């Protein structure tokens, strides 16, 4: 019951702000306000059982909780970890199971850890909240799905502009720090005919926090594919 109340409240909030669920064309926001930051420590090893860490990096993601509150709440909750029906919802130890050069790197399957599992804090899946934000450059963070209104826990980071995804995938964040490392992940070789990386890329630990005060990204920040300097 509590989950249903939260879900209903979030829908009411989004509708009150004039967001249209599933709309492929929506006006841009007046401000791109960062409400939360998520931090992930990511490692690369020869394989999942190897003890030697080949490389390590920190990825800091700014989240747009005023624009996509439902999607951000799902991401923040899983980033910080929560147990639901005996299942540990956490991105810790989740692999980047998909690498597509000059496109994206993808993670978030904490169920099966192979790209076949996805679940949200609202249930198996939840709606496309809106398509206000665009995949306008490398560094944007977006929900992976398998069709309309099928968001769960999987997400990806763009390596290049990917605006053909606009209207199909919900963007909810932007990499603030660690974009060089993300680009390195995008260069890892995959097995022939697949997007499965030949090395193990995994989230060692992650968490998310609300920022105070909140801050806005500049128009220049929206199009850069590099790290964003936050004052």
Describe it:
Residues 1-22 form the signal peptide. This protein has 231 residues and is α+β, with helices and mostly antiparallel strands. The chain has one domain (2-217): Cyclophilin (Beta Barrel), CATH 2.40.100. It is 17% helix and 30% strand. The chain has an eight-stranded antiparallel beta sheet. Strands 3-4 form a two-stranded antiparallel sheet. The longest helix has 15 residues, at 2-16.
Brief characterization of the structure:
With 231 residues, the chain is an alpha+beta fold. It contains 4 helices and 10 strands, in the order αββαβββββββαβα. It has a single domain, classed as Cyclophilin.
Features:
single chain; 231 residues; alpha+beta; Cyclophilin; 8-stranded antiparallel β-sheet; two-stranded antiparallel sheet; 4 helices; globular
Distance between the termini: 41 Å
Average pLDDT rating? 91
Tell me the strand order in the biggest sheet: 5-6-8-7-9-2-1-10
How many strand elements? 10
Q: Helicity range of the residues? A: 10-25%
Order of helices and strands: HEEHEEEEEEEHEH
What's the CATH class, please? Mainly Beta
How many structurally independent domains? Answer: 1
Beta-sheet strand percentage?
25-35%
Sheet/helix structural class: alpha+beta
Low-confidence stretches: 1-9, 11-24
**Count of individual helical segments:** 4
Find the CATH topology. Answer: Cyclophilin
Write down the overall geometry.
globular
CATH architecture: Beta Barrel
Describe the main β-sheet briefly.
Answer: 8 strands, antiparallel
Supply the CATH superfamily name. Answer: Cyclophilin-like
Catalytic activity: [protein]-peptidylproline (omega=180) = [protein]-peptidylproline (omega=0)
Family: Belongs to the cyclophilin-type PPIase family.
Protein name: Peptidyl-prolyl cis-trans isomerase
GO cellular component, one term: cytoplasm
């Amino acid at each position: 019951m509590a989950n249903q109340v939260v879900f209903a409240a979030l829908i009411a909030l989004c509708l009150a702000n004039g967001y249209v669920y599933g709309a492929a064309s929506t006006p841009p926001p007046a401000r791109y306000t960062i409400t939360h930051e998520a931090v992930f420590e990511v490692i690369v090893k020869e394989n999942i059982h190897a003890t030697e860490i080949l490389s390590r990096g920190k990825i800091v993601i700014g989240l747009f909780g005023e624009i996509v509150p439902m999607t951000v709440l799902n991401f923040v909750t899983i980033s910080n970890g929560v147990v639901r029906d005996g299942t540990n919802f956490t991105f810790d130890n989740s692999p980047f199971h998909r690498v597509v050069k000059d496109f994206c790197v993808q993670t978030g399957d904490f169920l099966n850890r192979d790209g076949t599992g996805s679940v949200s804090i609202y249930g198996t899946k939840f709606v496309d909240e809106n398509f206000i934000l665009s995949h306008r450059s490398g560094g944007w963070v977006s929900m992976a799905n398998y069709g309309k209104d099928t968001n769960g826990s999987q997400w990806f980071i763009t390596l290049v502009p990917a605006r053909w995804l606009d209207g199909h995938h919900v963007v909810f964040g932007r990499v603030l720090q660690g974009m060089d490392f993300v680009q390195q992940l995008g260069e890892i070789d995959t097995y022939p005919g697949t997007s499965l990386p030949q090395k193990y890329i995994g989230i060692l630990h992650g968490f998310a926090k609300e920022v105070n005060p909140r801050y806005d990204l500049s128009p220049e920040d929206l199009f850069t594919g590099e790290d964003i300097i936050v004052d």
